[in-house]
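Q: My labmate handed me this sequence with no annotations at all. I'd like to see what the chain might look like in three dimensions before we decide whether it's worth expressing. Could you predict it?
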Amino acid sequence: MDHTLYIYNATLWTMTVIAVFVFACLYFVKAGYGIFRTKAWGWSIDNKVAWVLMEAPVFIIMLWMWTSNGATTALPAFFAFLLFQMHYFQRSFVFPLLMKGKSRMPIAIILMGVTFNVVNGILLGKGLFSFPPSSFNEGTAFFLRPLSLFGIAAFFLGMGINLHSDHVIRHLRKPGDTNHYLPSKGLYRYVTSANYFGELIEWIGFALFTTIPAAWVFVIWTAANLIPRSAAIHKCYRKEFGDAVGKRKRIIPFIY
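A: Here is what I predict for the chain of 256 residues:
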């Protein structure tokens, strides 16, 4: 096996093991952003600036990975690149501008987010452009595979759920209102973290489409971060709103 490929695969396995560890830890330690931010997490900055600083690096890294590999427009790698960049353009440069309120994010959280995003961007870029699966050689025929079609559909379904759920959260309060409300529109009728459910579906769709191992490692990391956090949010809502939460699950409708 090529030495570079060996290191790449070893890194993927290492990231997977770390993700399992993070998953377990986050059931005991709440990541200190959003409703769980406390002074114990140290210095913090404006939430809007924080999101740009945390998410933009992976958009830039993926762009660099693409250009450094010849800026190929060959399908399906280029299409996967566009899907990824579309998500992170919205998350890096649109989502922060839509934010309301004066929340802050700890610098420690930002640094952890940047570290993961940089590593994730490199691994995905390598998977798409340096070590692509042989099925990528099928070109446009790749898109006609049932798994490809299902993956694309899941990606856009997840993105739609995520964007709509973020919209619901942003419009819970009127200007000047500081009260807390239980979201109940869209998939919030079934889960208390509909936005996280959408993001999880989105990246599962991306992994199904690309079939690259790095995309599945990304899915594992997404689940490792969002599933424990959804459990913490659900517990918080139960404490604050009681029976109003009803039979809502945490992140996966009717299941968890």
